[in-house]
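pasting for ref
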Amino acid sequence: MRRGYASGVVAALLLTLFCAASPAQAAGYRYWSFWESAAGAWTYATQGPATARPADGAVNGFRFAVSADSSDSAKPRTAPDFAKICADTPAKAGTKRVAVVVDFGTPEHAPAGETPPQQRAACAQIGTDGTSAEALAAVAKPLRYNSEALLCGISGYPGTGCGEQVDVSKEGAAEAKPKPDSASDSASASASEGSGGGPSLGLVAGVAAVVALGAAGWWQTSRRRRRDG
């Protein structure tokens, strides 16, 4: 009886340890994020494209990706370079020029059965009071919105869906990291890979300790039974 009890305790402890070490599934959302240029860098927009009114010379960016919230949204991979994007579009009285970058994201973030188009950049020339949504429509039709005015598709991509919740662990929300180019980067990459792959050294040590305790308990029980018998 005591031997069976000891074995049960060991099994329970092992199960608890492994369950605690298993990563929880994180929820994310697949959607188009909206970005603006500030000092030559992308910043997450504080308002939607339907209400934002960019100035002449502004750069707007749109990126399709899976992310948990705005704090970890993937930025457009094309630099916000107005001079380059609008180089062939001369200024015109009564209009303003807005550079628009559209990044359709990576295959890992694409809905099932769809392939993201190549990212693109174009110069929109719209009225001086025009919105970011108008600038986008000028260079990337057709646009698709849902009943709540949420931007769901640009240039027909994706064909369906709109801000749906997905399992981040399955969709690969984190983009592939560049290969480390220094010893410190290599060490950091190895540590990161170790934490995401198989059991860590601490987990293995913990399992070994539990097994050792269980074995010691069984040995003491067996010794007591032999002595009492």
